[in-house]
Write a structure and sequence with these properties.
Macrolide ABC transporter permease; about 800 residues; 8-stranded mixed sheet; cell membrane; transmembrane helix; alpha+beta; about 55% helix
């Protein structure tokens, strides 16, 4: 009852923490709701299936589950026959997907899913898609298409496939997307079998069918049904989901950090301003543990109320975030917002947990308040720093420095995350050590005004020197706001300069043939550009535990298979028959050395024993696992070629539809711009979140501080201070605090940004300097300054009016 009474009586003192929890939980809830809504769903083309039989899953070089190893034709035949005999199964359909894209008026028809739009006719039964007109394809030059394509039955249609443009006769149309060829043609395009769909009789028992299918397949394969069928997703949808998850994960992490940081600092500030009240409780007999329980209980109530309001706000904001993701093209098609219980429960638990943890930290200090402090100023204990704060601050500072150094040496994929974590750590260190800087900086900045005859600089200086810990609590959210704004905008500016310059340097003097409206280059494009690098990528499986010397048949034992990217090269240095060239890192992870033999299983389900011809230093331009191009083409007929790099002394051709030519500078800029829009949008969203949240915290902190100093204002007014003078003192002190916080916020970002620039210099082999966005920095500083000044003035004016009344 005491806790609830305190919250009711002191609601204005808890308002800042309540708002901070509300905003933090709203942000976290919104991101979790969108994350849950973006989960993989069963694709329409599988809605007519009861279950899917899938081959064994392999792991990547780090041991994480990844691709499934397709069955070979010989392996799949008995499985299909056995599954087809299960009672209740109408048909066991071999599902094949490969590249197919219509060419109209000399240009590829826009199709995001073109890489997997080609299928065998039997796959149409899985949806099921029905014939609207015509008949099923029977010859290898016949195709059935989506009626939305507008191709009439009997007309000729040019379709781009892996080999290049081919003429097909449209023999039918269906009421669903895709290009459906004869089963014989589909088997040539994709010999391996990645899934077998079970189409059941009406009213069949799915559970019994799944059980029987598992017996047919054995232990090394899987049968998925219901929502488990969502495992099979088109590559472009998976890519969008990956980008979207990356974006909202960054938002959630930043929101969580900012919530913890802001709520904790505000609760410490609020508790520190109640020392006289706590001292009075101790005077009337309250034990330290009782004081601690009261403070934690109050925070739990405030956290619960803020979490409830935050969950409501988060659910209401979820459609807005969904629309933003769709605008950035990183949301799965047709994504709908669905609200499950777990995002709300998680958000509430975080809100209450953060409040309790923050109060526990403040309560430990409050429990040490002696009864005599009921007679002292609440701010009398705000001087200096304790031993624990010194130790924690220096330890966190050391960790931040190590992370900043790690930013320079980390890989390209981890460099941004490392810089963000380094900045987070340094922000915490700056907040812990801020009292050390407050006094000296206050003396330095107010020194020029000491001889002006005005009392305001003297009062401001005395306040900062006498109460550095209170000022440090006000500085903390400013450090976070400015720090994140400078870091994120600085990363974007640095990468904007580094990546195009580095990429252009790598391909200088070459002409690059790139896909234009297609997912890759066909063999027709490669034939038109016979000179230059034309890497043919595929996913293959290294069978480390399989017996070598099995020829081109499958190795049989697929235990311990590792999936990785394999490049087929036409460079004579790397394309020696029967050999593979490995990078040092890949060779080490696979446990291979020069001269060893290793079975490699390809997309068609067969395995080839290769000899490790060389282990060379890692080179992204060469590839980590390189084999002859003809070997990849023989075992993966559906693979498309990457960008083709034609030397300056050879002529590049863009005569084949769906291709474009770029020089080094154009290619580098186009390659960077592909991801630049998303990167800049992500950075801007994170800046808005960090700065916006911190501005709210700054305003609340300044309002709380102004409210807590009402006795000071009363004394200064009784001593002859005018309202104008007191407001100027408030503005001056607030501005000084913002300046200190902004300076620390900039300083904590410089080491991570410098480390990032150093890493980019090494990665791009170019001179990359540290670049800052002055516009973003100015906006962040002015935004926090205006918010703080307005909040302080509003509360100070209200306090002075009440005192006058």
């Amino acid at each position: 009852m005491l806790i609830l009474a305190n919250v009711r009586e002191r609601w204005s003192g808890f308002l800042g923490a309540f708002v901070a929890v509300l905003v933090g939980v709203a942000l976290i809830t919104t991101t979790l709701v969108i994350y849950d809504s973006a989960r993989a769903k069963v694709q329409p083309r599988y809605t007519g299936t009861a279950a899917l039989a899938l081959p064994q899953q392999a792991v990547d070089a780090d041991g994480s589950p990844e691709d499934r190893m397709p069955w070979s034709k010989a392996e799949a035949a008995p499985l299909v026959a056995g599954l087809d005999k299960i009672p209740g199964v109408a048909d066991a359909v071999v599902d094949r997907s490969f590249y197919a894209q219509a060419i109209r008026d000399g240009k590829p028809v826009t199709d995001e899913g073109a890489l997997q739009s080609g299928h065998g006719w039997d796959s149409a039964r899985m949806a099921p898609y029905k014939l609207v007109s015509g008949r099923a394809p029977s010859g290898t030059d016949e195709v059935v298409v989506d009626r939305a394509l507008g191709a009439a039955v009997g007309s000729a249609l040019t379709v781009n496939i892996t080999q290049g443009r081919e003429q097909f006769t449209v023999v039918g149309t269906v009421d669903g997307p895709g290009y459906y060829f004869s089963e014989a043609f589909a088997a040539r395009q994709q010999p391996g079998v990645g899934a077998i769909a079970l189409v059941t009789d009406k009213g069949a028992d799915t559970g019994a069918i799944v059980t029987a299918a598992k017996k047919v397949l054995g232990d090394k394969s899987d049968v998925v049904s219901g929502d488990g069928r969502s495992e099979l997703q088109p590559q472009y949808i998976e890519h969008k989901r990956f980008l979207g998850v990356q974006l909202i994960s960054a938002m959630a992490i930043l929101g969580l950090f900012t919530t913890v940081f802001v709520v904790a600092s505000m609760l410490v500030l609020a508790t520190g301003m109640r020392r006289r009240e706590i001292g009075l409780l101790r005077t009337i007999g309250a034990a330290p543990q009782q004081v601690k329980r009261v403070i934690i209980g109050e925070a739990a109530v405030v956290g619960l109320l803020g979490s409830i309001a935050g969950c409501v706000a988060g659910v209401l904001a979820a459609p807005l975030l969904r629309n933003i993701l769709q605008g950035l093209d990183v949301a799965p098609p047709g994504m709908e917002v669905t609200v499950a219980a777990w995002p709300l429960l998680t958000g509430s638990a975080i809100g209450v947990g953060v409040s309790v943890i923050g109060a526990w930290t403040a309560g430990r200090k409050a429990a040490q308040v002696a009864p005599i402090e009921a007679l002292l100023d609440s701010r009398s204990a705000n001087k200096g720093m304790g031993r624990g704060r010194w130790i924690a601050g220096l330890a966190v500072l050391g960790a931040g420095v190590l992370l900043a150094i790690g930013t320079a040496t980390s890989s390209a994929d981890n460099r941004i995350n490392m810089a963000i974590f380094a900045t987070m750590t340094l922000i915490v260190a700056a907040a812990l050590l801020a009292p050390v800087f407050i006094g000296p900086v206050g003396r330095f900045l107010t020194a020029p005004f000491q001889r002006g005859g005005s009392a305001a600089p003297v009062l401001i200086r005395a306040e900062l020197v006498a109460n550095p810990r209170r000022a440090a609590s006000l500085v903390a959210p400013v450090i976070a706001a400015v720090g994140f704004a400078v870091l994120l905008s600085g990363m974007v500016e640095t990468m904007r300069v580094a990546y195009p310059a580095g990429e252009a340097l790598k391909v200088s003097g070459q002409t690059i043939v790139t896909p234009d409206g297609t997912p890759g280059n066909t063999d027709e494009v490669v034939a038109a550009n016979p000179v230059g690098k034309a890497a043919l990528p595929t996913r293959a499986f290294v069978l480390k535990d399989a017996a070598a010397g099995k020829g081109t048949e499958h190795a049989g034992n697929t235990a311990g298979a590792t999936v990785l990217d394999v490049l087929g090269s036409r460079d004579p240095r790397w394309s020696k028959p029967g050999e593979a060239v490995l990078g040092e890192r890949t060779a080490k992870k696979l446990g291979l050395a020069k001269g060893q033999e290793v079975p490699v299983r390809f997309a068609d389900g067969t395995a080839v024993t290769l000899r490790v011809g060389a282990v060379l230093p890692d080179d992204p331009a060469r590839g980590d696992f390189v084999v002859p191009r003809d070997l990849v083409r023989a075992h993966d007929p559906a693979a498309l070629t990457d960008d083709i790099f034609v030397p300056g002394d050879a002529k590049a051709s863009a005569a084949v539809p769906g291709t474009a030519l770029h020089d080094a500078a154009e290619y580098a800029l186009a390659d960077y711009n592909t991801d630049a829009k998303l990167t800049e949008s992500l950075a801007m969203m994170l800046i808005v979140i960090a700065v916006g949240y911190s501005v709210i915290a700054v305003a609340n902190s300044m309002a709380m501080a102004a409210h807590g100093r009402r006795r000071d204002f009363g004394v200064m007014k009784s001593a002859g201070g005018t309202v104008r003078q007191l407001l100027l003192v408030s503005v001056g002190e607030t501005s000084l605090v913002i300046v200190v916080g902004a300076a620390l916020g900039i300083l904590v970002t410089l080491p991570p940004l410098a480390g990032m620039a150093s890493g980019l210099s090494q990665a791009t082999s170019s001179d990359v300097g540290l670049h800052l966005s002055t516009g973003t920095l100015t906006t962040a500083v002015l935004g926090t300054l205006v918010a703080a000044v307005l909040a302080g003035l509003a509360v100070t004016s209200k306090t002075l009016r009440r005192q006058a009344a």
